[in-house]
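Why do we care about 3D structure at all? Because function follows from shape, and shape follows, mostly, from sequence. That is the central idea of this module. The next example makes it concrete: a single protein chain, its amino acid sequence, and then its structure expressed as tokens.
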Amino acid sequence: MCVNIMQITVTDLDRHTYEMGLPVTKKTNVEHKFNFIQSPALSSLDELLNDNDNRGSFDFAFIDADKVSYQKYHERMLELVKVGGIIVYDNRLWFGTVAMPEECVREAMKPNRHHIIEFNNFLAADTRIQISQVPLGDGITICWRL
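And the structure:
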């Protein structure tokens, strides 16, 4: 017997972003597996954590949100993602600026660059996960929940 129970929870402030992908999900007949939450990410994660059944129930999470709050997302995701699950963070190389000397970085890139470097260092020291930095696109960090 094969059981496939998969639910995908999507959180975004902009419903239009979610709706852009709807034609594909409808065409592949998986639209019913998506749970869209139109809300700020931290609020929706807190709401998910209010239901104890959600704690440790997620297999995978992909975070691409405001860079200032990545550490807050991380703490919440550690409660939601099961041991052995995967958390992926986007934009970890920030257009390569994380490896550049400060004086070579454009002013507009500096505020997020600082937060990204700080979060990258935090992840590297976090004993609750193992990480792999992948230089794909703008860089992703894959975290295996221990």
